[in-house]
Every structure is written in C-alpha cells, then in structure tokens.
Design brief:
Length: 388
C-alpha cells in the first residue's frame, strides 16, 4: 500500500488522537499532512512537534494566537478558521481526510474535501444528519468514497463487502443503551452530566457521550445509515445490546444475517477506514467468547428515551427536519454540559423546536445553513424563557 497522506480534522479529540495512535503503529503506511483543532492549543502544538505536518488549522481565535506563536520557528504552517480548513483539505498533498470534528462544525470541511475528490473517513455523523442527501449526491458526482468510521456503520460496511446493495432487506444498528439503560423518568429527572458522561463500554468526547446517554446518538446514526447506504426508512432498525460486542448487522433478502463483532474499541473502525481497502495487522486485544457468557438483545425504551423517537420522526419527515433536530440537540447538549438544563428537558426543547421551525421539503445548502441558525436561536430562546 502506498503511503497515505492524511488530513486529520479534529486531531485533538477522542477520534483524532486514536487515529494518530494508528499512525504511530504504522508509520510506513501513513504520514500526517494536516492537523486541525478548535481550542486545545497545547495538544495541537505537541502533535505538530511530533508529526511535523505541512500545516495546522486552528478554528478558535485565541488558541490560534497561542499555536501561531509556539510554532513560529518551525516549518509547520499555521492557519486560522474554517475557510482555511476548507482550503487545506483540497491540497494536492492530501490523499485522505478524516472528518473527526464534532457537530455541525464539521460539515463544510468535509464537503470541501469531497469537492476536491478526496477519499473521506467519516466520523462526523452530524455531516450526514444535517445534509446527507446533498453530501452523498456530491460524493457520487465526484466519485469519492466515504468510508464510515462510526463503529455501527463500519460494521455494516464490512458486512456489505462482496454483497449487492439491492440484496439488503434491512440493517440492525446495535446500541449499548448507555449509562442509563433500564432507568425510568423518575430517575433521569435528577441525573447530572458527570453521571451521563460515564459510558459503560466506550470512552468518547463529551457531546457523543451525552448523546449516547439520551439515545440521540442512535437516532443520529439511523439518519447517518440511511444516507450512507441509500436505505429506505423502513429498512433501519435499532436493537439494544448492552455488551457492545455485535457492532451492527445486515439482514439480506434471503433472510441471512451477517454481523460484525469485536471488542468495543474505536481504534478498529478508525484503522479499517484509514487502511481501506486493505486490512492491516494490529495487536489490539482480541474478543474471546469464553469471557462473555451471554450476549443479550432487547428493544429500546423509546417512551423514556424520547430523543430516539424524535430522531426517527425527523428521519421520516426528512427535508430540513434532521438539520433542525441536530441544531436543537447541539444547543441542549451544550446547555446540559453546563448544567443549564435537565436531562429530560432536552427532549422537550428539541421537540418544540422541530414543531416550530418552518418545514422545507427539498432544502438546498443555503436553506440548511439557515435552518441550522434558526433552530439554534429558537432552542436558545426556549432555554432562556423557561429558565430550566
Ligand atoms: P471530541 O470532542 O473528543 O473532539 C472533537 C474535535 O473537534 C477536537 O479536535 C476539537 O478541537 C474539534 N472541534 C470541536 N469543535 C470544533 C469547531 N467548532 N470547529 C472545528 N473543530 C472543532 O469528539 P469525538 O468524540 O472525537 O467525536 C468526533 C466526531 O466523531 C463526532 O461527530 C462523533 O459523533 C463521532 N464519533 C465519535 C466516536 C468516539 O468514540 N469518540 C465514535 C463514533 C463517532
Ligand atoms: Mg456509533
């Protein structure tokens, strides 16, 4: 395999740092061309020193000044802001772009990379939630492969190797259920962020950890899967699997089901995406059946975890509704992390935002950007008015 030159967007995050650990293990296969971060200047400076990328991009103004100064004597170019991000991903010296920014903030750089024909490793699921139809259209037009990094989608992608897409009957996304599996509203009404951040099986960034606790993450993943694999809404199912060993499944038109399994470790799907179409050897711990006497499966409790229901509604409604759902969710998750809203109230605000925003059936990119802005403003307003 020729050495791939990587742009790692969001290199200081949970996915970004694990991607760099894979580079460490396979320096002959990967080199680092671009790194980007928002506000973690210290870690970005350290990464720049170690990997000597051609350029780093910093999106937070204050952090930019710090990074710029620290790297002033080095060969590493330092740029500021999202426009710079959109430019560097298009450089000829970039082969592969890992989209590992969190949230809507990752949308435009991913699109820009697709526009330039770069292969994408996509962790940033919000890109497909907000603008899945437009993003996949652009990828098809530019013949750009989008390789999923999200573990469920990597599982489905791996199950589909050698299969025809028209033989998919349905896909089944597994969900651990998060830290509050089995809990009811009378318990959830009092939970705080520290508890919600403690995921039983995965160690992840703050936003996705809260989304896992509310099951919004699984809702976002349904929408992500719909666009990634070109599915009808009815072909997408969710099952709770608390052990997180079966990473997802595909059922084919003859009733046969394929599953992809392994220990819950994001390094595996990240490595798979980075190396695709190769599979490369590693020394990650292996799953052993004897250590897991039982693997269990149950239906999600959508009455309690209403975000999954809201996301399903947004998926069926389509148009700008998933974008509105995502924007309201980003606002309430941020508020929850800052102790400004209760766990259950997050769903109320998302629901009201979805009800109030004008529906657009076939939004273009400008309309999606406007919907995102309006939904954020509306959700913020609700937060303030209701004094949660
Ligand atoms: P994180 O919070 O750990 O890291 C986010 C990265 O994005 C950081 O490098 C940060 O500097 C950068 N960033 C944050 N806000 C930004 C902004 N406004 N502009 C530009 N850059 C910004 O997040 P994470 O857990 O690594 O998740 C990244 C993405 O991958 C998310 O979309 C998440 O849903 C997805 N994902 C993560 C995991 C996981 O295990 N962490 C698993 C599956 C999917
Ligand atoms: Mg996932």
């Amino acid at each position: 395999m020729a050495q791939k030159r990587l742009a790692i967007l969001g290199s200081t995050g949970s996915i970004g740092t694990q991607a760099l650990a894979i580079v460490d293990a396979h320096p002959q296969l990967f080199s680092v061309e671009i790194l980007s971060a928002h506000s973690n200047a210290a870690l970005l400076i350290e990464q720049a020193g170690k990997y000597q990328p051609n350029a780093v991009v910093v999106t937070d103004a204050k952090a930019y000044e710090t990074v710029k100064q620290a790297l002033s004597g080095s060969n590493v170019k330092v740029f500021e802001g999202h426009n710079a991000l959109n430019e560097v991903v298009q450089w000829d010296t970039v082969d592969f772009v890992l989209g590992a920014i969190v949230g809507y903030a990752g949308l435009h750089s991913t699109l820009s990379a697709i526009e330039a024909g770069k292969t994408i490793g996509l962790a940033n699921k919000e890109t497909l939630v907000v603008a899945g139809e437009l993003v996949m259209q652009k990828a098809a037009e530019k013949r750009v492969p989008i390789i999923p990094v999200d573990s469920e989608h990597s599982a489905i992608f791996q199950c589909l190797a050698g299969e025809r897409m028209d033989t998919i009957e349905k896909i089944i996304l597994t969900a651990s259920g998060g830290p509050f599996l089995g809990k009811k509203p009378n318990f959830l009404v009092n939970v705080k962020k520290a508890h919600a951040l403690q995921h039983p099986n995965w160690s992840m960034g703050a936003k996705i950890s809260i989304d896992s606790a509310t099951l919004m993450n699984k809702g976002l993943e349904m929408i992500e899967a719909k666009w990634l694999f070109g599915l009808q809404n009815e072909q997408i199912e969710v099952v709770i699997h608390p052990q997180s060993i079966v990473h997802s499944l595909v059922q084919f038109t003859d009733g046969s089901i394929k599953a992809q399994m392994g220990l819950p470790d994001m390094k595996l799907p990240i490595q798979y995406a980075m190396a695709f179409p190769q599979r490369i050897q590693n020394d990650f711990p292996r799953f052993q059946f004897k250590n897991y006497g039982t693997l269990t499966f149950e239906d999600p409790d959508i009455k309690t975890f209403r975000n999954l229901q809201l996301a399903t509604q947004a998926m069926y409604k389509s148009g700008n509704m998933p974008c509105v759902l995502n924007a309201a969710n980003e606002v309430v998750v941020n508020a929850f992390i800052n102790n400004k809203v209760g766990f259950l109230e997050m769903s109320d605000i998302i629901e009201q935002t979805m009800e109030q925003l004008p529906f657009i059936e076939k939004p273009n990119m400008e309309e999606l950007i406007a919907s995102d802005t309006e939904a954020r403003a509306y959700a913020e307003q609700l937060l303030q008015n209701n004094d949660y």
